[in-house]
Every structure is written in structure tokens, then in C-alpha cells.
Target: Protein MgtC
Amino acid sequence: MAAIQAFDALQLLDTFISLLTAFVLGTIVGAERQYRERAAGLRTTVLVCVGAAAFVDLAMLLTGPDGAVRVISYVVSGVGFLGAGVIMKDGTNIRGLNTAATLWGSAAIGACAGADRLADAALVALFILAGNTLLRPLVNAINRAPLAGAFAEATYEVRATVAADFVEPLRETLARTLARADYPVREIKVERETEEDAELVATLVSTSAVASELDTVTRIMRHEQGVTHASWAARVLS
Model:
């Protein structure tokens, strides 16, 4: 009997409109994901939208706006765990971040629809769709553009092959030379050592450097007594 007493046609119509809005907007966002053959496609996006709308709408009916706010906070964290399931690590590459973010945004669409903020839900869907489509050419253009060496983040090393008797003095000389060039050193280690010579390797703290400045450092080191060779190298960070 409680179910019959709780039945309210107007409330049911309001819920239907909220869920329908979430369904339609989720379909629009999900269709783009399905077209690009992403891990979370049309059905997943729609289910996230409708599910979020249903939870928020139910909280609105039972406890009002305060209860809906609490449910929305749980939706935000819950969908975050769901999105983590589509993120995959392949060697040094990470895939699925954009799909996870889209699912998270889809939950926002549903939450807005469930809270009867239909125009807000449409705006969120519009911006999510724009982010996944309109920004794609810009992303591709940036990825294709060559990055100037002076602005690339990398691990920089300065190497010097020195006579075995000069290892400690030249370690200090190398540190001072780099400091004068405003390149603080993270560490200087002896990577190879024999009875005749050794190789000093100075790893810089800086993640960007100017090639001409490091060329000057190595040129100075080559003129130091006991140094047979000096060079620098960079490994670009992925």
C-alpha cells in the first residue's frame, strides 16, 4: 500500500523528464566516443548519465536539495573509480585518461539533469562534446610541432673523462664551473674508473638548458689539467 500512496503522477513525470534528458545528452556524448571506438562507448556513457540522474533525482524526492548534494558528492567519487577501470598503462604510455574524464563529465550531466537543472546539463554536454571534437585539431597540431631544445624538459648530464689522480679535484672544478653557469648539480658520480682514468658524470637539477651554455662548460673543462674529454648529453623526459 505504501507504494500506491507514494505514487505521484507529477513527480513521476518530473523524474521521466530528468532521466530522458540524461539519456538524450548521454547518447550525444557517447555517440562521439563510440564513433572513435573508445573503451567506454555509447552504452556506458548513457548508463553513467542515467544512473547519476536517477540517484540525484531520488535524493531530491526523499530529502530535498541537501540530500541531493550529499548524493552528488558520492557520484563524483564513485564514477572516479569507474573511470579508473578504463585507464591502462602500456610501457611508458598511459591510455584511457580522456575516456575516464569523459565518463566523469557524463556523471555531471546526469547529476544536473537529476537536480532538474536541464539547461545546465545541456551546457555541460555541449562543452564535453566540444572538448572531444573541436580541440582535437589543436591537439594534433601541437603534437606535430617540433619542440625547441631550449624549452624541452630533459635530464642533462655533463661527462668528463679525467686522469685517475685528478678525480676529486676535477669533481669540485666541474661543480664550480656548472654553478657559475647557473646550472646547479644534483649529483656527481664516478661512472667508470680504471687505474689510468675515470669518467665523472654530473647530473643537473635543471630540466631545461641552453645548448650553447653547456658547450661553454665542456669547453672550459677540456682545458683543465687531467681532462682528456668532456661532453654533455640530454635525455628528453616522456
